[in-house]
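Weekly structure sync, notes
Attendees: PL (lead), two postdocs, one rotation student
Agenda item 3: pending single-chain targets
PL asked that the sequence for the first pending target be pasted directly into the notes so everyone works from the same version. It is reproduced below exactly as submitted, 343 residues in total.
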Amino acid sequence: MACSSAAFFVALAVACQANPEVTVTSAIARPRQILRVYVGDLTGLAWVSRDRIVTSYFSDESSAPARLWTVAVDGSHFKRIHIPEAELCGDQIGPTKVAPNVVGFLYRCNDDLYVFRYDFGSKKGTRLVHRPVPDLGFARFTWNTSLRRGLIAQVSSPCVSIAGLTPTGIQLLPIAISEDGRKWDLDRMFRGDKQHVCGPLGNATWPTLSSSGRFVAFFATSAPSSPDSGFNRIDWPWNLYIMDPNTQEPKKVLERVSYPGDLRWSPDGRWLAFSGKVAGRLGAWLFSPEGQRLVLFSPVALESLDWSPDGNQIAGIPHPEDTDDFKRHLLDVFDVSAVTRSS
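Predicted structure, written out during the meeting:
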C-alpha cells in the first residue's frame, strides 16, 4: 500500500520510512468539551453505555483517595459512584468497560491491589479476581467477560510487563518477544524481584483485548535499561503488536511510536486508538491493522481515552504538550465516524 501524508503535516511522512506499508493521514476532529473540573485530577476513562462515562477523580481540596465518578455524555450529572464494597481504604483507579453498563476498576488497599467490577443495573460491586494481584506501581487491566479472563500491566514506569488475569488470580504468559537481538518474556516483571528483572531486556505494556476476544494488542520495546538508567527507556520508540490469545504468536504491525498510551480496540475490532508521538508529532491516533491506515485525529495527546459503544466517538482527557501543569482538568469527546466508517 502506498505511503502518503497530508500536506499540512509533512512531518508525518517520516513515519512512512519506518512503516512503508502504512498509509499515514490526518483527520482532525474538533473536540466537544463536556466536563471541566477546576480542582483535582481526572484519570482513566470507561465509556460504559450510550449516555454514561466513568472516570477516576481525585480532589485536591481533601485528603480523600481517588474515587470513581460518572458523567453523562452531555456533561451533566457529574457525581460520585458509591461502592461500599471497595471504599474502606485506598484509591479506585483504572476504570475500564468490562460489559455493557458494567465498569471494571483497580482498588488499592494497604499493600494490596484488587480487581473489581461495578454493575450499574444491580448497583453492586464485586471482585472480578478473587485474590489480590501484585501491586507494582501504576497499572492498567483489560477484561473480556465472555472469556472470563483478561490482562494486566504496569504503565508509565521504566520497567513494565504484561500478565494474564483469571478469576482466581495472575496467570503467567511465557510469550517471547524478539527485537534488536534481544529476547524476553512478556510477563517477566510478574515472575520475581523487581530490581532483578528490571535490566537490559525489553518491556511490554498497554494491553487491550478486543470485545470478541479474538485479538490482543500491546506495545513493546527493546530499549535497554537498568536500575541506574531510570526513565531513559520511556523516550525510546515502541512497536505495536497484535496476536491471537489462543496461538499467542505476536505480530509487529506498527513501528516507532514514542510515549505510547491507553491503547484501545474499537467495539467492532477494526481500529485501535492510542496516544503517542509518531514522526515527531504528538497526538491521538487511529490505526487499522487490517487496512494499514494510521490517522491522526487529535493534535493534542490524550492522557486517557475510550470508544463510545457505537464506535463513532472517542472520549479523552487531554494533556497539551506545551504545559507544565500535570493536572488533568478536562474531558472531551471527538467524533471519529468520518474515519471509522470510511473503510
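Discussion points:
- Residues 1-15 have pLDDT under 50 and may be disordered.
- The first strand starts at residue 23 and ends at 26.
Action: rotation student to compare against the earlier draft before next sync.
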